[in-house]
Design goal:
alpha/beta, Leucine-rich repeat, LRR (right-handed beta-alpha superhelix), 31 strands, 12% helix, globular, binds 2-acetamido-2-deoxy-beta-D-glucopyranose
Length: 505
């Protein structure tokens, strides 16, 4: 009797174990993962130390389908030990074991190529392949043929070492809607076959060496495009903005910094049906603020740097841009901040540097830009005092007012109330008084540039009377003497962790 009970218990337990096991991962998938672990750690490395339990679905960087318990997502981000200089050549046959794999992410693993790359064709369910930030050279490895990878919609080969032309065969993977190839060495004309990709929603070819005339016919055919990023290439020619006018889904456009591109925005009085949120037209030889911007009410980020804009910033540009505005490197002038009188802005980043703006900063600047994180107003003709209300900008991370005509003292609140400030550049002005007001407290401070001013105080005394600047890494004081000490000609770019204890000369 007792024996039967024990026996029954044993049978039950065994059944339970089998059941638990069958809910775990497949043996062949577990085995493949362990082989991948060996290979990513070869010849040395310590990735995935926790991979040993039975159920590989519980392992780090592995996800399984809840019902089939088959691996459906692998995300090995920066797992290969980069001190091992040898490249990794993953054996695609191992990955082909995961028949239900939907997402394969291998960024930052020093991959130069694959062994038997064509095996990836077995992954009929693969939707996303992310190989960002590796050293892959051969784009032809991604020619899988017409019917292969029928589910793949996202291919990211950015920040690799791809050279040559975009292979035509990539166009055979018709389902791709997101093609990301920025930061490579691709060159030549953009393959015309891409214009057959009418389903493309995201195309990012920035930071390559594509040349020839701007691919207007291609743009015309990308009727589903939402993000089109073609900046920092060698495209040439005169382009009318009208070519983008019919791309009704376009939300993000960047054609900045192409070699000889000249963008024409005013050839017709027309207001495109676009509703853009990011528009980067830096270095496009614009002479005027594009008038169509006055109807773009949802712009978050606008970059018109390094054009040939003159006059002042129109109020509709200031008011309609809600997060980032850059107009660096133009010939803009006037008192553009006047338009904010009694209004506040949601901008988090404003770069007006290297222009010809003048006049004082408004007294209530701290109320105008309550959200500001970065302000660069350097290389202009701003004058007057630094308003103490800067001290209200408690999110400000970086403030650059260098190379202007500011005078007076640094207000105490600027160096005591800006709890997030890490970078303060006030060099090349006519500031005087204490280099750092007494009792300054800048807990996050990392970079301080005070050179070329008329501070009377001994800089080290200023520092010693301030709260510890424990994070300070770089201090720049140039040319003009500080106080009575003979420090003329000093150029100090130092890593200071113990300021006040010793003086650096
Ligand atoms: C790739 O993996 C398969 C399956 O384990 C194996 O048969 C093959 O020899 C491997 N290829 C290389 C080049 O290591
Ligand atoms: C990129 O490829 C070139 C040869 O085409 C090679 O000289 C260079 O070292 C490679 N760079 C990297 C980062 O692998
Ligand atoms: C576009 O696709 C069609 C049909 O597949 C093909 O005949 C044509 O050559 C393609 N166009 C380009 C520019 O590749
Ligand atoms: C643009 O698309 C149309 C229809 O989809 C096609 O006939 C035409 O060849 C394409 N243009 C280019 C330049 O590929
Ligand atoms: C880019 O292409 C031009 C020719 O179009 C060539 O002279 C130049 O060396 C290339 N630059 C790089 C970084 O490959
Ligand atoms: C945009 O569409 C309109 C009407 O459909 C058409 O008249 C115009 O030529 C198109 N513009 C471009 C640049 O294709
Ligand atoms: C701003 O508001 C003040 C009072 O709150 C008012 O005197 C001034 O006229 C207003 N300025 C502008 C430009 O509306
Ligand atoms: C100091 O910052 C706080 C917000 O962090 C602000 O409410 C206060 O007005 C500021 N004080 C001065 C004098 O700017
Ligand atoms: C600096 O702090 C000390 C002690 O906290 C205080 O006695 C002194 O008045 C403060 N000086 C200034 C200028 O705020
Ligand atoms: C400052 O130092 C320089 C070079 O070290 C010297 O030529 C000059 O006479 C000194 N000036 C004073 C005021 O000590
Ligand atoms: C969101 C926003 O501020 N939209 C403005 C854009 O500019 C036009 C013209 O100045 C204003 O009428 C909108 O209110």
């Amino acid at each position: 009797m007792e024996i039967t009970v024990v026996h029954r218990c044993f049978v039950l337990l065994s059944l339970l174990c089998m059941c638990l096991n069958c809910r775990g991962c497949l043996e062949e998938e577990r085995f493949a993962l362990l082989q991948i672990k060996d290979s990513i750690n070869s010849p040395e490395g310590s990735a995935f130390p926790s991979w040993y339990s039975e159920d590989c679905c519980q392992w780090e960087a592995v996800e399984c389908d809840a019902s089939t318990t088959r691996v459906n997502r692998l995300f090995f981000h920066h797992k290969r030990d980069l001190s091992v200089l040898e490249h990794w050549y993953p054996n695609t046959t191992l990955f082909a074991q995961f028949k239900e794999l939907k997402e394969l992410e291998l960024p930052g693993n020093n991959i130069k190529g694959f062994t038997s790359p064509h095996e990836l064709r077995e992954l009929k369910q693969l939707q996303r392949l992310d190989l960002h930030d590796n050293s892959i050279e051969d784009a032809y490895g991604f020619c899988w043929g017409k019917r292969a990878l029928p589910s793949l919609y996202h291919l990211d080969l950015s920040a690799n070492n791809l050279t040559g032309f975009i292979p035509e065969c990539i166009c055979q993977s018709r389902r791709i809607t997101e093609l990301i190839l920025y930061d490579n060495n691709l060159h030549g004309n953009i393959s015309p076959c891409l214009s057959n990709f009418s389903s493309l929603e995201l195309l990012d070819l920035s930071n390559n060496n594509f040349s020839g005339s701007f691919p207007s016919p291609l743009v015309h055919n990308l009727t589903s495009i939402e993000s089109l990023l073609l900046s920092s290439n060698q495209f040439t020619g005169k382009v009318s903005f009208a070519i983008f006018g019919n791309l009704s889904r376009l939300g993000r456009l960047d054609i900045s910094y192409n070699a000889h591109l000249e963008l024409e925005t005013e050839s017709q009085t027309w207001f495109p049906s676009l509703n853009m949120y990011v528009l980067n037209l830096a270095g496009c030889r614009l002479r005027k603020f594009p008038s169509f911007l006055s109807t773009q009410n949802n712009l978050k980020s606008l970059d018109l740097s390094d054009n040939v804009l003159v006059g002042t910033i129109p109020s509709w540009v200031m008011h309609n841009t809600t997060s980032q505005l850059k107009v660096r490197g133009n010939s803009l002038s006037g008192h553009f901040l006047e338009i904010f009188r009694n209004r506040s802005s949601q901008l988090t980043s404003l770069d007006v540097s290297n222009n010809r703006f003048q006049g004082p900063f408004p007294e209530d600047i701290g109320l105008i830009f309550p959200e500001l994180v970065n302000l660069d107003a350097s290389d202009n003709g701003f004058n007057g005092l630094i308003p103490p209300s800067f001290g209200r900008l408690n999110r400000l991370f970086s403030l650059d007012l260098s190379s202007n005509e500011l005078h007076g003292e640094i207000p105490f609140f600027v160096t005591s109330n800006m709890s997030s400030l890490q970078v303060l550049k006030l060099g090349r002005n006519n500031l005087r008084g204490y280099a750092l007001p007494r009792n300054s407290s800048l807990p996050e401070f990392k970079i301080l540039d005070l050179g070329h001013n008329d501070f009377m105080d001994n800089i080290w005394r200023s520092f010693s009377q301030s709260q510890p600047l424990s994070q300070l890494r770089v201090l720049i004081l140039r040319d003009k003497p500080f106080g009575r000490e003979n420090t003329t000609g000093i150029v100090t770019v130092v890593d200071i962790r113990s300021i006040g204890k010793q003086s650096v000369r």
